[in-house]
Amino acid sequence: MSPTDLPAPADDVPVGPIAPPPAAGPPPLDGEDVLLTVRGLRKSFGATEVLRSVDLTVDRGRVLALIGPSGSGKTTVLRCLNGLEVPDGGTIAIGSTGDDVALDFAARPSRRALAALRDRSAMVFQHYNLFPHKTVLENVTEGPRVVQRRPAAEVRAEALALLERVGLAEKADAYPFQLSGGQQQRVGIVRALALRPQLLLFDEPTSALDPELVGDVLGLIRELALEGWTMVIVTHELQFAREVAHEVAFVDGGRIVEHGDAERVLRDPQHERTRQFVHRLLHPF
Predict the structure, then answer these.
(1) Which of 9, 25, 110, 179 is 20 to 30 A from 166, comparing alpha carbons?
(2) How many angstroms separate the Cα of 145 from the Cα of each of 52, 128, 129, 160, 283?
(3) How many Cβ atoms sit within 10 Å of the Cβ of residue 44?
(4) What is the DSSP letter of 28?
């Protein structure tokens, strides 16, 4: 049977809460513990300057939403934080004082340094990025087993427990083409959680989904926020950002134009450019 002959999978399995694994770090300290510090981050692609001296801080257990127009540099920020792109300048530090990985991109960092940075975070991609030739379970266990070199039995048990908690245990042996978009994205989130990251990065996690599937994924991210995961989320879902994020940063032209309390920025933005953007998305007609 070919992929096109398979029936469309159901996507109405309830999503339960996910607790951070014990190795994910101590509980949040109510804003007293900075987990992520970014200073003067710059990135160009050829002659195009994409990031222009971006500064950010995120406390442990807090959620930051990055909003802004397409092409403003939001995704590039995430990719730099995860080491998928190497910035041209600036610094990134992830971790508690004394246990942090800090890179100064004035000098090109080594592969080992970039790997250490990447090991502190995990990325959930806009278009899932699952390995099509691997099963759901293999997708989830690949990173912890191969990259982190953790014991296979431990990784498998943890992966199955995570899949159970998001209602996908019965899909462990399925392949991505046998899943709906919402199910694939939930697998992508479980794959990130299985890496036991200190920082979760989401790149517009619902933009590739059909409207009726968005709720499950947003509900899962909302649970993660309540459970104390530290997250940076690129999103155009402003109402979701208002409900879940502690802070919002508006990005435009590769700069942080406005950054502050989520409710304040989305209800009463101070910068005219932020005001225009928020009004356009909240009142499109």
Answers:
(1) 25
(2) 37, 20, 18, 14, 47
(3) 14
(4) P
